[in-house]
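Memo to structure team: turn this sequence into structure tokens by end of day. - J.P.
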Amino acid sequence: QVQLVESGGGLVQPGGSLRLSCAASGFTLELDYYAIGWFRQAPGKRREGVGCNNKMSGAEYYADSVKGRFTISRDNTKNTVYLQLNSLKPEDTAVYYCATADSGYGCHDSGSVSYEYDHWGQGTQVTVSS
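Reply from structure team:
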């Protein structure tokens, strides 16, 4: 059974940092085969793609609002994907989700297409406030 479990969220002051983790299990192939996307949803707002990468196609995307502050990385030995959040702002407050898609889907240089992702985690809350 495929499962994605996010962790690492919490309360942080503006300008602070967090590292979110997304532990993957139950996948048939190595994690590098899959596109990984991070999304977030703030109260009353639509879900938005924060960033994604696809090791197989080389595609990578970050939303303009987080470019230069957020970074996605992977540790295949731990079957875990990370989202490093730096220079956090109050507007970054949201529930953050990780998701996976088969290679060739989900993550494109032009953006992260949420309906192309097959599996989603339950989310982790990030609150940026003084």
